[in-house]
Amino acid sequence: MPNKRQANQHRHTVKRREEPAKSEPVANETGDFIIGRHPVEAALNSDQQVNKVFIQEGLHADILHNIANLANQRGLIISTVPKQKLDQMTAGQNHQGVVLAIPPFDYASLDDLFAKAEAANEPPFFLILDSIEDPHNLGSILRTADAAGIHGIIIPKRRAVGLTSVVSKTSTGAIEHIPVARVTNLVATVKTLKDRGLWIFGTDMAGTDYRRWDATGPTALIIGNEGKGIAPLLKKSVDEMLTIPMIGQVQSLNASVAASLLIYAGFNSRHPLT
Questions:
Q1: 32-102 belongs to which CATH class?
Q2: Pairing state of beta strands 32-35 and 98-102?
Q3: Please, where are the H alpha helices in the chain?
Q4: How big is the chain by its Cα radius of gyration, in Å?
């Protein structure tokens, strides 16, 4: 990969803006829920710890029978409850008649992310999410990351959504397959990643056309906050800025949409057609 670290130190950048997300329910400190039929089924087929299974009374869908069988095989407690109970537990979200009560979601370490890349015999390809606030954005990014073979995601502990039931449902089970590391300081983490050989790329209105991006080496891609973009101090640590060209009237993209385009641009350079 060409050495562009010095060439991009003085690149002028312009912030891409997006409307902030509306507030959503967040996980409590003692436990959380996985909701929706496919996320629940994926969790029961994984090593996810489960405290209890709640199934809506009166429903007879095949997938619910399969969920009940999986729960029985694991020796889990199954409670059949009215729909109103599930509505209350999930703050009115679309639970599809099934809810898992689980311990708080486990976070990975940076070493776990590197271990996943090593197990795949591939150069690391990580995402760094700078203060993503909307759980639907995080869930969608997890889903795309799993589809494209991303080895892990890094999020900050403060001023950002964590792994919640909304994130889990939106990810449709991908949360079980993508390790997520939660760190105190993204700037310090980026320095650590650079010391371990990664090239750091950011997203902005000014930068290299993302279609020219070469992500074949050890790579980390930063996706900025929905409204503020990448924080100024973090932006200074980026090796190269990437931009998505736009010719329409709306000069912004949802964070998860922008992430998906860039993730697959990276995928394309790593897995070119032959």
A1: alpha beta
A2: antiparallel
A3: 37-44, 62-73, 83-89, 110-119, 135-148, 165-171, 186-195, 232-235, 255-270
A4: 20
CATH 3.40.1280.10 fits 110-270, yes or no: yes
Helices (H) and strands (E) in the chain, counts: 9, 10
**Nearest 10 degrees: Cα torsion 146, 181, 228, 243:** -40
Buried-state track 197-216, b at ≥16 Cβ within 10 A, e below 16: ebbbbbbbbebbebeebbbe
Predicted TM-score of the model (pTM): 0.71
pLDDT, tens digit (0-9, with 9 covering 90-100), for 85-120: 999 888 888 899 999 988 877 899 999 999 999 999
Nearest to 131 by CA among 229, 205, 241: 229
Distance CA 163, CA 158 (A): 13
**Model confidence pLDDT, tens digit, residues 221-267:** 999 998 889 999 999 999 999 999 988 776 678 899 999 999 999 99
Query: Is 21:136 a contact under the CB 8 Å cutoff?
Result: yes
Domain extents for the chain?
A: 32-102, 110-270
pLDDT band at 19 (very low <50, low <70, confident <90, very high): very low
Burial annotation 72-102 (CB, 10 A radius, 16+ → b, else e): eeeebeeeeeeeeebeebbeebebbbbbbbb
